[in-house]
Design a protein that fits this description.
- This protein is an alpha/beta fold.
- It has helices spanning 35-41, 67-80, 93-105, 124-140, 142-153, 156-161, 163-174, 178-189, 218-227, 243-246, 248-262, and strands at 2-5, 8-13, 20-24, 46-50, 87-91, 111-115, 205-210, 232-236.
Length: 263
């Protein structure tokens, strides 16, 4: 079921009386990337997924986004839906939002799942890459950038064996408004470093990483894992940066195993 909250497109599945999980997608995707997880988890959990502002079906506004404004949007959704200590689940940019949310308001959550993400802010090289991406979108249009960026998110096995599915994903993201995509790039470029807060995360936390992730490789996520007290780490086989899409069965098993311990 779709709801509009503060202008954002929010999609809910499952019984609202069950424990809630809020899904925060990566860049430059939308809530549909979580389909394989929600199809399974909505049987026992109240699943809330939404399109980050400027992406998918959510409005663009002026396109001047910050990570703080993204966390504000997340907080508004939680409050409007009266979610009581949901489990926060973020991938990549969704992980950046999750990590800053945990820094700002950890008390609002009961557990966290951080997938293919990092706590460090962009270094100078990373900032220049974001700036170059914005320039490329301005000069060449959105489609060439999206094609190259998304292909880099997936492991070679997926690109070789599921080219048709990959093309659908690329086509969908290529249809987003360029202003919204550039707004996300600006938000990521300007985000703060949340590494110092990792040791302050007291809620149960699961870190998930694709073994072939070239954007946030296992070495990066293992460093995070060692800094979060009592965290768990699971490496997903035959997957790159988009583990929930590339190997949904193994990701789902890791999530279900983690959630079973919470109960």
């Amino acid at each position: 079921m779709k709801k509009i909250i503060n202008g954002l497109s929010v999609f809910i599945e499952g019984n609202s009386k069950n424990k809630s999980i809020i899904f925060i997608h990566g860049f430059p995707y939308d809530h549909n990337m979580w389909k394989s997880q929600i199809d399974v988890l909505s049987n026992n959990y109240f699943c809330v997924a939404y399109d980050i502002r400027g992406l998918g079906e959510s409005p663009i506004g002026d396109g001047q986004f910050t990570m703080e404004s993204f966390v504000d949007d997340l907080e508004t959704i939680i409050d409007e839906l009266n979610l009581e200590k949901p489990i926060i689940f973020g991938l990549s940019m969704g992980g950046y939002i999750s990590l800053r949310a945990l820094e700002r308001m950890q008390y609002k959550f009961s557990a966290a799942i951080l997938c293919d993400t990092r706590s460090e802010a962009d270094n100078n090289e990373g900032k220049l890459k974001r700036a170059a991406a914005i320039k490329r979108i301005n000069t060449e249009g959105l489609a060439p950038f999206v094609n190259d960026f998304i292909r880099n998110c997936f492991a070679e096995d997926y690109k070789k064996n599921k080219e048709a599915e990959l093309r659908k994903i690329i086509e969908k993201s290529s249809g987003f408004c360029p202003v919204g995509v550039k707004g996300s790039l600006l938000a990521m470029l300007g985000r703060t470093d949340t590494t110092q807060n990792l040791c302050n995360i007291k809620i149960p936390t699961l870190l998930v990483c694709g073994e072939k992730d070239s954007l946030t490789p296992p070495s990066v996520m293992k460093e995070m894992f060692h800094k979060v007290p009592n965290a768990e780490y699971v490496e997903i086989k035959n997957a790159g940066h988009m583990t929930p899409i590339e190997n949904p069965e193994e990701v789902n098993n890791a999530i279900i195993n983690f959630l079973s311990k919470l109960n």
